[in-house]
Design a protein that fits this description.
Largest sheet: 4 strands, antiparallel
Helix content: 25-40%
Shape: elongated
Distance between the termini: 76 Å
Structural class: alpha+beta
Strand order of the largest sheet: 3-2-1-5
Radius of gyration: 24 Å
Number of strands: 8
Length: 180
């Protein structure tokens, strides 16, 4: 009668650990990229939903509506960085500042997952007119995530209220991705 030992040899353990390490090395970057893409899609959807809500409120109530990045829950920040969140309000008196009697149509919280959203320099507020158009010039939003400048994209809102997707300039992509 021979006795057999139960268990693994050192060689079997090393092979199992090597296979596990290779699988993790392949899975972690793919998971990170998928996660960043999902958060970016959520941010894009939130912005597009905001524009639809603002447009609907402006046309139904025949009032101008302001969309702006926030510094606090009730104040516009005056920044072109929309990553900390934004709000939409009916601008009844036309001063582009939210007053206590002006309805908040929508609020968006800070973007999650390292997503950054920046608007054209100098475009710190959007004014949606009762005809559904965007007052002023076109505004370009640059959207980026942890995958870097190469994966950045743009959303351009025209004066007529139409949205199109595009590719940012190298400078805009770098500024968004690396905070320049």
């Amino acid at each position: 009668m021979s006795r057999t030992d139960a268990g693994f040899t050192l060689l079997e353990v090393i092979i199992a650990l090597t296979v596990t390490a290779i699988l993790l090395a392949l899975a972690v970057p793919a998971w990170s990229n998928a996660r960043a893409a999902a958060y970016r899609a959520l941010a894009q959807s939130a912005l597009e939903g905001t524009l639809l809500d603002a447009n609907r409120h402006a046309t139904v109530t025949a009032t101008e509506v302001v969309i702006c990045p926030v510094s606090t829950a009730e104040r516009c920040s005056g920044s072109s960085d929309w990553s900390p969140g934004w709000m939409v309000f009916a601008d009844l008196d036309g001063d582009r500042t939210r007053d206590a009697n002006e309805t908040v149509v929508r609020r968006e919280a800070a973007l999650a997952g390292g997503i950054r959203l920046k608007s054209t320099q100098g475009r710190t507020r959007l004014i949606i007119q009762p005809n559904g158009g965007n007052a002023g010039s076109n505004v370009t939003f640059t959207l980026c995530d942890a995958r870097g400048a190469a994966k950045a994209s743009t959303l351009v809102l025209s004066n007529s209220g139409q949205m199109r997707h595009g590719k940012p300039t190298e400078a805009a992509a770098q500024a968004c991705a690396y905070g320049a």
